[in-house]
Amino acid sequence: MAALIGRDLLGLADLSSTELQELLEMATQLKSQQLKLHSNKVLGLLFSKASTRTRVSFTVAMYQLGGQVIDLNPNVTQVSRGEPVQDTARVLDRYLDILAIRTFAQQELEIFANYAKIPVINALTDLEHPCQVLADLQTIQEYFGTLAGLTLAYVGDGNNVANSLMLGCALAGMHVQVAFPSGYAPDAEIVEKARAVANNKTEVVLTHDPKAAAEGAHILYTDVWASMGQEAEADNRLPIFQPYQISEQLLGLADPQAIVLHCLPAHRGEEITEEVIEGSQSKVWDQAENRLHAQKALLASILGAE
After folding, report:
1. Any catalytic annotation for residue 263?
2. Residue 129 designated active-site
């Protein structure tokens, strides 16, 4: 993966289809311990949003590679006191080897990437969640043995996860069908970018009908109906999104061998039922574990681990 050494990952479209597949293969080999890599580097985590899986999986991945991690909580750095982003970026560039950022605005991430010479990874913004989708695709490939030609149905809010899923599926040669209520569409520019990547070889479909999206799908995927920063809207969103719940009835419309994914945390009884997330078709816990392996592959590739 020499092509990724020193590069940023600000969104999934930063990868080619070949690079994506090679990352997934490396993640699989790391998980099975067929491949062991070492990188004595320092990763900085600058997280403005709460995190369980992203924080722990990045930390463990870097430690397992033989590196170190510095948790740069904004509340105990000068970022919380108004230091300009570009100043923080130029200083961290002198201390760290790589930086993973979890924040609200994609623009903030891009400023860091512009002012820091070290690689910058998008660990989540309001626009995209590329590292999550790397793990999602690894999980799907583990179960089906392939990605090309499969259909993923995402039902719910057209949020950052939906955006990255459209790009990731297009890169992987998969069809993706996104069902959402009126007024909660995915980002229009991301939709066009995903369709350009798909290049008429696969479909990127938008619909308001969750049943139509789920029909015959190989993967059903959902996320919370109110993301971080939208908590005040949660109660108002409940009746709007209720028809988009992944229930046993909706799962029954999918392919008989379909799997269910959720990036977590899950609000059981809202976007997904208890029966489905705990059912035999749920691969949610494998999906969560694969955050570790996919991100380890990403770190190793960018850092040039040996």
Report:
1. yes
2. yes
Residue 33 and residue 67 in one domain: yes
**Residues 88 and 168 occupy one common structural domain:** no
169 is in an annotated binding site: no
Q: d(Cα 180, Cα 165) in Å, to the nearest integer?
A: 14
> Is residue 237 flagged as an active site residue?
no
Residue 141 assigned as binding residue: no
Residue 242 belongs to domain with CATH number: 3.40.50.1370
- Is 132 annotated as catalytic? yes
pTM of the model: 0.96
Same domain, 246 and 104: no
Split into its structural domains, the chain has a count of: 2
Q: Whole domain around residue 140: which residue ranges?
A: 132-287
Per-residue model confidence as pLDDT tens digits over 162-203: 999 999 999 999 999 999 999 999 999 999 999 999 999 999
Whole-number Cα distances in Å, 183 to 207, 232, 233: 12, 17, 14
Say if residue 163 carries a ligand binding annotation: no
CB distance 181 to 271 below 8 Å: no
